[in-house]
Automatic annotation (TrEMBL):
Its main location: membrane. This is (raccoon dog) hypothetical protein. GO terms for molecular function: glycosyltransferase activity. Residues 114-134 have a biased composition (Low complexity). PANTHER family: FRINGE-RELATED. Belongs to the glycosyltransferase 31 family.
Length: 333
C-alpha cells in the first residue's frame, strides 16, 4: 500500500514539473500593435449590432462606420477631433481651452451715452430697413458683421430714420463713402507727428460729429488698421485732435477718400431757425443749442410749448410721426 502511494506521488510531482518546464520554455504571444488596439477600441465602441442610437444623435456618424474607415490611430484621432469641432461644446458647458489656460471672462457691458426719452424716441422703422442702416458701432477687429453702414450721431441730435435710410440707399455700401457736413468753410490745418522728433503739416476736411456722419462698410474695413483694436486713440494722439477730426484724418489724409458734403445733416453750430418747417421730412439730423447767445432750435409750431419742449424735438417728432401714442391727436403745425 505504501509503495503504491509513493509511486502516485512521484508521478504527480513529475507531471507538475513537466508542465512548469513547458510554460517557461514556450514563446509568449506577440502583443497587439497600436493600430490593432485602435481598431479594437473602435469595434468596442460600435457596440452590439442592431443597437439604436440615442435620441438626438441620429445625425452623428456611428462608431462602427468610423471603425470601417479608420486605418490608423492618426486617422482615428483626426476623425474624433473633426467630429468634436462639428458638434460644438456640450450643452450647458463651456469649451476647455487647448493650452490649459482659463478662458477669458466675458466682456463687461459698456454703459451707453444715449439716454432714451419719450421726446426723442422715433416710431419703429420697417424691419427690413433697420438692418440696412443700423447706427451701432462695429466691434474692433470683427469682419463678420452684416451691417452695411456705420453712423455716428451725438446724443443731443434728433435722427429722422426714414430720411437717413433714403439717403444711404442712394450710395453703394461696398464703395468708399464718407458723408456728412463740415463745420468749417475750409480744410482743417493740423500737425502730424511722424516720429519723436519729426512733425509735418497736414490738412483735410472732416464731418463734424455734432451733425452726424456715416461711413460705408467698404470704407470702414479700410479704416480698421487705424481705427480698430485700440488704434484709434493712438491715431488721435498723432494729430492731437478730437474724434470726429480723427475720422476725417484717417479717411481723407491717410486713405485719400474725399468727404461727401450733405446739407441734410445739422448741428448746433449753424442757425437752425433757417431750416424751413416744410422741409423737415427731408432732413436727416437736427440739433439745438445756443447760437450767438440766443436759443438755437427749429422754429415751428406744435402741440408742445417752448417751455415744455425747448429743443422742439417732441414737436418735430409728432410732425413726422403723428401716429406716435404720446402725440396729441389734434395738432396744427
Amino acid at each position: 500500500m505504501l509503495k503504491r502511494c509513493g509511486r502516485r506521488l512521484l508521478l504527480a510531482l513529475a507531471g507538475a514539473l513537466l508542465a512548469c518546464l513547458l510554460v517557461l520554455t514556450a514563446d509568449p504571444p506577440p502583443p497587439p500593435v497600436p493600430a490593432e488596439r485602435g481598431r479594437r477600441a473602435l469595434r468596442s465602441l460600435a457596440g452590439p449590432a442592431g443597437t439604436a442610437p440615442a435620441p438626438g444623435l441620429e445625425a452623428a456618424p456611428a462608431p462602427a462606420a468610423l471603425a470601417r474607415e479608420v486605418q490608423s490611430l492618426s486617422e482615428y484621432f483626426g476623425l474624433l477631433a473633426r467630429a468634436r469641432r462639428d458638434a460644438g461644446p456640450p450643452p450647458g458647458g463651456a469649451p476647455r481651452p487647448a493650452d490649459g489656460r482659463p478662458p477669458p471672462p466675458p466682456p463687461r457691458p459698456r454703459p451707453s451715452r444715449w439716454r432714451p426719452t419719450t421726446s426723442s424716441s422715433p416710431s419703429r422703422p420697417p424691419e427690413s430697413s433697420t438692418a440696412r442702416a443700423s447706427t451701432c458701432c462695429w466691434r474692433p477687429g470683427s469682419r463678420a458683421t452684416r451691417r452695411w453702414w456705420f453712423c455716428h450721431v451725438d446724443d443731443d441730435n434728433y435722427v429722422n430714420v426714414r430720411a437717413l435710410l433714403r439717403l444711404l440707399a442712394s450710395y453703394p455700401h461696398m464703395q468708399d463713402v464718407y458723408i456728412g457736413k463740415p463745420s468749417l468753410d475750409r480744410p482743417i490745418q493740423a500737425t502730424e507727428r511722424v516720429s519723436e522728433n519729426k512733425v509735418r503739416p497736414v490738412h483735410f476736411w472732416f464731418a463734424t460729429g455734432g451733425a452726424g456722419f456715416c461711413i460705408s462698410r467698404g470704407l470702414a474695413l479700410k479704416m480698421s488698421p487705424w481705427a480698430s483694436r485700440g488704434h484709434f486713440m493712438s491715431t488721435a494722439e498723432r494729430i492731437r485732435l478730437p474724434d470726429d477730426c480723427t475720422v476725417g484724418y484717417i479717411v481723407e489724409a491717410l486713405l485719400g477718400v474725399p468727404l461727401i458734403r450733405s446739407g441734410l445733416f445739422h448741428s448746433h453750430l449753424e442757425n437752425l431757425q433757417q431750416v424751413p418747417a416744410s422741409e423737415l421730412r427731408e432732413q436727416v439730423t437736427l440739433s439745438y443749442g445756443m447760437f450767438e447767445n440766443k436759443r438755437n432750435a427749429i422754429h415751428m409750431k406744435g402741440p408742445f410749448s417752448v417751455e415744455a419742449d425747448p429743443s422742439r424735438f417732441r414737436s418735430i417728432h409728432c410732425h413726422l410721426y403723428p401716429d406716435t401714442p404720446w402725440c396729441p391727436r389734434t395738432t396744427v403745425f
